[in-house]
């Protein structure tokens, strides 16, 4: 019998704890790392040549919306192919744990820009669970690709207890008995292994569906802070986590999240929110909010983490179908209209256009999106004369304002007008500052959502590229081992998950990265069909450079070979459900690299 199931030979091994790397082999047996040392035997069923390559723990994606996709493509191959071996679902107050299929589709699809026509029938067909424990048990039965952990979503909790209609009606508050039910559900969620609760206070995430409450904000946004505090009191006592979405337009209520995290004269509450970025609309704001969170950490005993991306935050749009248009009333009014003909009529209406122009150009209305049509590029349109130009340029050529040029083109061609813009993180120096900030957790990919609007699945590789590029320029700002730690062990430790380290005795979630291919191809975009969604015409925006990740192992099983997902991914279980209440903890330090389990000697 072979001594190992897998041997990864001759790589530069990073442990995910920030220690200096070691040139060594990694031996894997029965899904566990059993030895890390030079010169291991090559007697194994699978031998990987890792010479000139980096070997490290699988990456953790702490903010995804894979809640729908996991039901039909549980391999989650678009993340796994980039080295992600653990994902977190249940973000932004959205969860599939509680609620009817129709209510869940109404809450999920418009916010996350996933076609209702795909998700609603999917949930009607596949949803068999009826409570929070049942949902985790259900996830545990799926042939998971990556490991999965979950938050309980407050929108789902609130709608389940109050009924969806009441939960999104202004002036309706939960009764005392309903608040008690919400508290009981939060206690239950922590009991069975959810990481905590996610809440949403951003009013421009809107309900979908065709019911009377279409275009109202999500249920969680109707909660008062006294209602939220009923939840945070439990999370604080239980050592669980609050994940939140502040109002990124006004940016003011992030102070309330910071205050919830404060640990003076009480237990600290672990709190993480989106997001530390540098928007075009607010240059330098990342430094201000970073200084504020540092103050809360140093002087008020907070445990607060911004989520952040190590790359440009860019957006693609089909016509006006882009979540940032929900930020102001005229944009929401257009997105409220589902019929393409009726929407075109609205966009041509003089009174509507006057309102849109006023709100778009207002200096008084708070904003996160830059609302500058000079900062746009038309990628496709039935009118080829406008392709490659900005809406502002088209307007100048036609003798009209850029706003009118945009409305003219979209009213005429609808979502056949595809365009691009950069929203945040345009300056490399600012991105370096953000990813180096001690109050940041690297993540916020939104994987599984905004499928035609964003593509951040490969954010871990883009951080490694950012670090390596700076090093090659002779201007290093972060070591590779620190970058690996930020993507793996740091996140796992903060979330309380048994994930993110490459150590003897730990589950063998391992990624092999070839640093020679951390190049410009990581930024190139293409569109591909979405596995098992039943509509090949609806395609996902992706960034792929398969040469950069020659191998990924999850639980000791090969998930990626030569940069491509293996056929077994999503068909046989590789990852597992990670329950926060059953994560492994020990008072003894884990073995260092270069040691082995006794049976592997």
Keywords for this entry:
six-stranded parallel sheet, Urease, subunit C, domain 1, nine-stranded mixed sheet, alpha/beta, 601 residues
The CATH topology of the domain at 4-57 and 512-600 is what?
Urease, subunit C, domain 1
CA(first)-CA(last) distance: 15 Å
Q: Percentage of helical residues?
A: 25-40%
The best one-word shape is globular
- Kindly provide the radius of gyration, computed on alpha-carbon positions and rounded to a whole number of angstroms: 24 Å
Gross CATH architecture of the domain at 4-57 and 512-600 = Roll
Largest sheet: number of strands, sense, barrel closure: 9 strands, mixed
Q: Count the helices. How many?
A: 19
The average pLDDT value, as a whole number, equals 94
Task: Name the CATH superfamily assignment of the domain at 4-57 and 512-600.
Answer: Urease, subunit C, domain 1
- At the first level of CATH, what is the class of the domain at 4-57 and 512-600? Mainly Beta
Walk me through this protein's architecture.
With 601 residues, this protein is of the alpha/beta class. Among the domains are: 4-57 and 512-600, Urease, subunit C, domain 1; 317-422, no CATH class. It is 32% helix and 19% strand. The radius of gyration is 24 Å and the shape is globular. Mean pLDDT is 94; it is low at 582-591.
Set down the secondary structure blueprint:
Blueprint: E1 4-13, E2 22-29, E3 32-37, E4 44-49, E5 54-57, E6 59-61, H1 77-80, E7 84-89, H2 101-112, H3 116-126, H4 132-141, E8 147-150, E9 152-153, H5 154-162, H6 164-167, H7 176-192, E10 196-200, H8 225-238, E11 241-245, H9 254-261, E12 270-274, H10 285-300, E13 303-308, E14 313-318, H11 329-336, H12 340-348, H13 350-361, E15 377-380, H14 391-398, H15 402-413, E16 418-424, H16 428-436, E17 440-442, H17 459-472, H18 480-487, H19 489-495, E18 510-513, E19 526-529, E20 539-542, E21 551-554, E22 557-561, E23 564-565
Parallel strand pairs: 1-4, 1-5, 6-7, 7-8, 9-10, 10-11, 11-12, 12-13, 13-17
Antiparallel strand pairs: 1-2, 2-3, 5-18, 14-16, 15-16, 18-21, 19-20, 21-22, 22-23
């Amino acid at each position: 019998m072979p001594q190992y199931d897998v041997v990864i030979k001759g790589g530069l091994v990073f442990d995910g704890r920030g220690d200096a790397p070691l040139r060594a082999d990694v031996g894997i047996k029965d899904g566990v790392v059993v030895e890390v040392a030079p010169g291991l035997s090559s007697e194994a069923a699978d031998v990987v040549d890792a010479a000139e390559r980096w070997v490290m723990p699988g990456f953790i994606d702490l903010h995804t919306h894979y809640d729908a996709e996991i039901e039909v493509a549980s391999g989650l191959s678009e993340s796994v192919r980039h080295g992600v071996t653990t994902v977190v679902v249940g973000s932004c107050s959205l969860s599939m744990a509680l609620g009817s299929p129709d209510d869940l589709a109404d809450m999920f699809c418009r916010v996350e820009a996933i076609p209702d026509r795909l998700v609603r029938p999917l949930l009607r067909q596949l949803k068999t669970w009826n409570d929070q424990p049942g949902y985790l048990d259900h996830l545990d039965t799926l042939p998971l690709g990556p490991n999965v952990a979950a938050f309980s979503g407050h929108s789902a909790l609130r709608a389940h207890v109050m009924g969806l209609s009441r939960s999104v009606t202004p002036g309706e508050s939960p009764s005392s008995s309903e608040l008690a039910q919400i508290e009981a559900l939060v206690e239950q969620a922590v009991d069975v292994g959810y990481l905590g609760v996610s809440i949403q206070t951003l009013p421009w995430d809107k309900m979908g569906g065709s019911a009377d409450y279409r275009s109202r904000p999500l249920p969680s946004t109707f909660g008062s802070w006294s209602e939220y505090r009923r939840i945070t009191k439990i999370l604080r006592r239980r050592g669980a986590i609050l994940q939140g979405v502040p109002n990124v337009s006004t940016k003011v209520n992030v102070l309330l999240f910071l205050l919830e995290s404060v640990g003076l004269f009480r237990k600290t509450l672990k709190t993480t929110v989106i997001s530390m970025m540098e928007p075009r609309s607010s240059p330098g704001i990342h430094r201000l909010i970073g200084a504020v969170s540092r103050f809360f950490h140093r002087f008020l005993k907070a445990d607060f983490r911004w989520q952040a991306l190590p790359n440009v935050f860019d957006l693609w749009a089909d016509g006006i179908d882009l979540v940032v248009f929900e930020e102001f009333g005229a944009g929401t009014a257009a997105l409220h209209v589902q019929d393409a003909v009726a929407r075109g009529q609205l966009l041509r209406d003089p009174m509507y256009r006057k309102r849109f122009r006023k709100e778009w150009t207002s200096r008084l209305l708070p904003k996160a999106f830059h609302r500058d049509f000079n900062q746009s590029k038309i990628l496709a349109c039935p009118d080829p004369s406008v392709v490659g130009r900005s809406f502002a340029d088209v307007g100048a050529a036609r003798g009209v304002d850029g706003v009118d040029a945009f409305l003219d083109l979209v009213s005429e061609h609808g979502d056949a007008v595809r365009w691009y813009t950069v929203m945040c993180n345009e300056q490399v120096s600012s991105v370096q500052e953000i990813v180096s900030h001690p109050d940041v957790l690297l993540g916020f990919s939104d994987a599984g959502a905004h499928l035609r609007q964003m593509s951040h699945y490969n954010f871990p590789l883009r951080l490694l590229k950012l670090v390596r590029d700076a090093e090659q320029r002779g201007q290093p700002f972060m070591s590779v081992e620190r970058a690996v730690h930020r993507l793996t062990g740091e996140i796992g430790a903060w979330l309380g998950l048994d994930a993110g380290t490459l150590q003897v005795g730990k589950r063998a979630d391992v990624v092999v990265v070839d640093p020679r291919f951390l190049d410009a191809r990581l930024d190139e975009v293409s569109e591909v069909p979405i596995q098992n969604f039943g509509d090949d015409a609806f395609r996902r925006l992706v960034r792929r450079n398969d040469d950069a990740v020659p191998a990924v192992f999850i639980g000791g099983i090969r998930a990626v070979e030569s940069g491509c997902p293996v056929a077994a991914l999503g068909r046989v279980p590789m990852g597992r459900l990670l329950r926060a209440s059953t994560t492994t903890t020990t008072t003894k330090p884990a073995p260092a690299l270069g040691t082995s389990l006794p049976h592997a000697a």
